Amino acid sequence: MSSDQSYIFSRKLSDVGNIEILHAHYHNHHFARHTHDFYTMGIIEQGCMGFHHENGTYLVPPGSISLVNPGTMHTGYPQAEQGWTYRNFFIDPSIFQEIMTLTTGTEIVPHFPYPVITDTQISKLLIKAHISLESSPIRLERETLLYEALSLLIRKYATAKVLGQEPTICHPGIRRACNLIEDTYQKDLSLDDLAEAANLSRYHFLRTFRKQTGLSPHTYLLQVRANRAKQHLSGGATISETALNCGFCDQSHLTRRFKKIYGITPGRFLAGL
User: Fold this and answer.
1) Domain boundary residue among 127, 162, 197?
2) 112 pLDDT above the threshold of 60
3) Domain span at residue 263?
4) Which helix (H) or strand (E) holds 147?
5) Is residue 207 situated within a structural domain?
6) Tens digits of per-residue pLDDT, 43-71?
7) Average pLDDT value for residue range 27-31
8) What is the DSSP track for 189-245?
9) Rounded Cα–Cα distance for residues 41 and 44 (Å)
């Protein structure tokens, strides 16, 4: 086990909406700037985590919840000498949408305006649900505890966002460049390729891309490759096959980037499937 972490547990639950859970202690791990297509929510048990968010920089002390909406740039790093221990959820928007729809009768997904929430009742409910997801063999128990915790979280802290209301990336040229990256992520793309797709000079493309996405084009490409790698691994590919098919130089390059975004190695991710 590396000096970076004293323990780590990861699991994907295909029978509970494909939710992924992570229980870990990080001593000096620093997450890269990245986004997710899902909600990420962590309850700090010990220590303190800091993270950069598109709205500012935040500290998450014990008992508090970090909550990042899909598509929001964020990082993560230790803010205490001993690092931090937390229980993390990766939740598909469809699960939150289902709860919101049952509550409001309209097809909306929740938006959480506060990146850090301090609420002892909800923290305890989320930890209880996380422990159940980690260890209970009883599906009804796991689903009930999870949905009760998420329902209360939504009722107290969520605002509504209509599906398709507005794109995360508003600039049409940057959307074209992002689509090019998504479609050809295995290739060795150049800055000229992307700037041409956006119909911008290289200088203005770089500035506009970072402003729109919160990431550099290269970091965005690495994130897309890591996301695709996760899909390949979930589909049964080996780590070496995944590295080759997703545009990484080698298996070690995949491992470094994967951990920078997901906090675990590809091997640990496979063990939790």
Assistant:
1) 162
2) yes
3) 172-271
4) helix 139-157
5) yes
6) 999 999 999 998 799 999 999 999 999 99
7) 93
8) --HHHHHHHHTS-HHHHHHHHHHHHSS-HHHHHHHHHHHHHHHHHHTT--HHHHHHH
9) 10
